[in-house]
Amino acid sequence: MHYLPRKNKNSTYKWQIIVLVLIFSTVVSYVWQINHQAQYSFNIRELENKKQELEKEIKDITWEISSARSLASVTDRALELNLTQPEEISFLEVGLSTVAVVEDNLTVSP
User: How far is CA 23 from CA 12, 20, 105, in A?
Assistant: First the structure.
C-alpha cells in the first residue's frame, strides 16, 4: 500500500492566513475606493454650488452695472457734480465717424 504523505498542519495554517490577509486587504481596498469616490462626488457637488453662487453674483453685478449706466443714473450724478448742459452742440465729421463738440472756444480750420 502506498500512503500519501501527510501535509504539514503548519502549511495549511499558512495558506489560511494568506487567504485571510488577501480577503482583508481586498475589503480595505474596496472601502478606500468607495470612500474616495464619495469624497470626489461631494467635491463636485460643492464646486457646482460655488459655480451657481458665482453665476448669481455675476448676474447681480451685471444688473448693478447696467443700472449705473442708465440715463437716469447718469443724470443724477451729473446733477450731484453740478454739471450743466451745453447750450450749443455742433458735429464734426472726421473720416467715417461723427464727433459731438461744444463750441465755446473751438476754432475750426478748413
Answer: 17, 5, 94
Residue 92 inside a domain? The answer is no
Q: Determine the Cα–Cα distance for residues 66 and 72; give it in Å rounded to an integer.
A: 11
Question: What does the block give as the cell for 75?
Answer: 443724470
Instruction: Look up cell 443700472; give the residue.
Output: 67
Residue 106 domain-assigned (yes or no): no
Domain extent, residue 20, equals 9-85
| Cβ-based burial of 56 (10 A; exposed 0-12, middle 13-18, buried ≥19) | exposed
Alpha carbon distance 89, 104 (integer Å):
10
Q: What one-character DSSP code corresponds to residue 70? A: S
pTM of the model: 0.45
Residue 72 lies in a domain: yes
Q: Which three cell numbers stand for residue 80?
A: 450731484
Is 66 a domain residue?
A: yes
Q: Give pLDDT tens digits for 65-98.
A: 888 888 888 888 888 888 887 788 777 666 666 5
pLDDT digits (tens, 9 = 90+) for 51-67: 999 999 999 999 988 88
